[in-house]
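Morning, I've got a small favour to ask if you have a moment. I owe you a coffee for this, so here goes:

…
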Amino acid sequence: MKQADLLTKTVKENPKDEVSLNAKLLTRGGFVDKLASGIYTYLPLGLRVLNNIKKIVKEEMDNIGAQEILMPSLLPKENWEKTGRWNVEEMYKIHDENLGLGWTHEEIITPLMKKHILSSHDLPKGIYQIQSKFRNEPRAKSGILRGREFLMKDLYSFHDSEESLDEYYEKVKQAYFRIYERCGLKEKTYLTLAGGGAFTNGFSHEFQTITSAGEDIIYICKKCGNAINKEVFDKKCSCGGKDFVEEKSIEVGNIFKLGTKYSEVFDLKDENGKHLIMGCYGLGISRLMGSIVEVFNDDKGMIWPKNVAPFLIHLVSLDMGDVDVKQKAEEIYSILQNSNLEVLYDNRDDKTAGEKLNDCDLIGIPLRIVVSQKTLKEESVEVKKRGEKKAELVKIKDLIDFLKNDI
């Protein structure tokens, strides 16, 4: 894409009504636009990131045999009255229609499965969706980390035994860690024991990513590397460890063993009359995007991991008044595109060199390639990784081979 054609523009100043770093940087970089508290429009750059994360999540869910569906966002009151959750504060309601907006979907998926899971031969089953959720969030002050409308993946599994649930639960754990690894967060993300909240009477597991911007406090066991949320911390770990490191963190996923809580309410049974055992596995797509920004940044802007970045390469043409520079930059842009490399090409002729380079840092694309009078004298371009100080000259004739080895 040519940057002169890009819908959005960067902004120098931080938005006055945002307090979180992710909201400030994403707004300044032209990734999101705030409509109201906790409600954002995802602009072209932001949507590309969101779709990259979504693609990773879908691939990992498909790899464990889960099947994708899409359930409604408008949910009937009667389903929620059966579970006693119609009056929860989180749920937006349309009272004159007896409908609510979906903030979770246990009450919808469970009766749906009565039509499709007819015997134990149909088990286990994992069914997921990626959908906008709506939650009456009183603390919508953390940018896209805690929105009132947000994109989420929720997976539900169905089993005829605790052993089957345990096995599937472990598969999902590993799939989640692969997601965080592909998004660049694995080294900072910990499996964390937490309370079950409104979803289960027992414990749950969260995936918590370490960052100073975190809203949670976790204690990481030095012995096993797992963590415990402060809300359930009792100074000992299930592995026997008693030495912990306290950290601030952001929850980037949570998983629950629901048992028969919902299958009993909706009478979901196998052919022997036994209520099915369920699991629930949530992961906020937009929340993960915000978490990545909170973790990967510096005083100049965002630093996107390559798997989720809006583009892999930011090609910058300086000295646009020079015909040779402009022509060579266009040639390099074509070469990169023909090599199936995703490129944002800064061909703007109304920006100074400093403005262009500052925008590169703010937007945070992993690799910057600069074409200028100076580099062309060496028949080269300047290549620099975002977040690193060192740049190097690479001969134009060797550029594609260099990129294939370096990316």
Summary: The longest helix spans residues 162-182.
